[in-house]
Every structure is written in C-alpha cells, then in structure tokens.
Amino acid sequence: MSIFSKKQEVNLEDFCRDFYEKNILNPVIEGIDADATYFETVKKTIIEADQSFFNITPEKLAAEMIPLRFELFALAWLHKFGDKLAIVQSVFTKKYLEEKDKSDIWENSENYNQAIARSSTLGKTPQKALDRVFLARVNTTRVNLFEQYHKEGFNDKCVTRVLNRLFSEDACKRNVTAGLLMFALCDRLGFDKDFEPNKEAQFRLTAIIHGFYDGARHSLDKVKIKI
C-alpha cells in the first residue's frame, strides 16, 4: 500500500517521487518485476489483434511507455489540481529526471505532450464561429499564462508543457486524446507515419492509455497537495 492515506495532506515532491519510483520506474510487487510481466501480457494482447506489432519486444514497449506514463500522470495532475500546481509539478519532474540521469524520459515525453496539445483543438476550424471563439480563447489563455509564469521565474519549457495540456478535458472524455497518444506511441515504436493499427488494436491500446491515466487520477483523488 502507499504510505499516503486517503485525503492525507502530502508534500508535492514527496508524493511525485514516491509515485514515479513505485509506479513507473521501479514497479515491484512481492519481489516480481511488475513491468516485465505486465508488458509481456500487453504485447500478447496487442498481437492477438494486429500482427503488425509482432516484432515489437516487451522491453521496447515498456521503455516507450515510461515517457507516456509520465505525461499521462502530468495530464491527470493538471485536471485534478489546475495550472499553478501543475507548473510546480512540471518543474520538479524535470529536475527529478535530471538528477536520476534520465533526462531522455523528459525529452521523449515531448511527442506525447504535443499529441495532447493537438487533441484539445482537433476538428476545430476558424471557418466556424463557435470554433473561432474557442480557438481564440485557447491561444489567448496560453499566451497570457506563459507571460505570467515567465515573469514569476518558472522554467519556460516546464511552463509550455503544462500549457499544452490545457483545454484537454473534453478531448479526453471523447477519447480523442487517447487516440492521438496511441498514434504517437506507434510513431515512437518505429512504425511509418501513415501506419494505422486495426480497430481492435486501437481499442486495446487506447484502453491501456486510459488505464494509466485513470490509475494516476485515482491516486491523486486520495490526497491533498502542499508545496
């Protein structure tokens, strides 16, 4: 069990560090490497649906899921706590990964962050009045908040990561975000840009993505964060 009880007030850095180490980087259950076992099962499940994934090793899949899981945790964090705490969480995460000599995870999660950003405005067009209003709101909000947090001295890259996740709640509910993250994952796994898994494989991959997001959100719902 986690050391944090339901709705216990916990320090942001302590909570994130505990979650990263026990749930993403080193998940061990009763002495067994949980990731190795889990991704063996995941690969079998996906191959059952689409043989295109046959040559993707469980190790490759597990390694590529790590930056995706960091990004999904950050997305759940924003949706739960809002942009201010999300900025602090983003700064800590970058520093944490640098201290762990794992800056590659931060860099590799950029693809998934961009997918989330695209999901928030996907299908919106300036030719439609309501869409035009929404797009203007998104752009104005991002610009204003960037200027605000820049003036407050926060790292610009950390701020941009958070702002890219804004306005994604509706896209998440409509499965748009998970869909774009699924395609970003396929791209990171080495598939061609025009590759598209069959419908069943898409369903299974997006279900996994939803699972990681929901797992993070469930953990966040149990605590109150203090800085």
Number of DSSP strands? 4
Biggest sheet: strand arrangement: 1-4
Order of helices and strands: EHEEHHHHHHHHHHE
**Percentage of residues in helical conformation:** over 70%
* Outline type: globular
Radius of gyration of CA atoms, rounded to a whole number: 18 Å
The proportion of residues in beta strands is: 5-15%
Please report the distance between the alpha carbons of the first and last residues: 23 Å
Main beta sheet: strand number and arrangement? Answer: 2 strands, parallel
Average pLDDT, rounded to a whole number, is 93
Structure classification? mainly alpha
Count of alpha and pi helical runs: 11
What are the segments in which pLDDT stays under 50 over at least 5 consecutive residues?
Answer: none
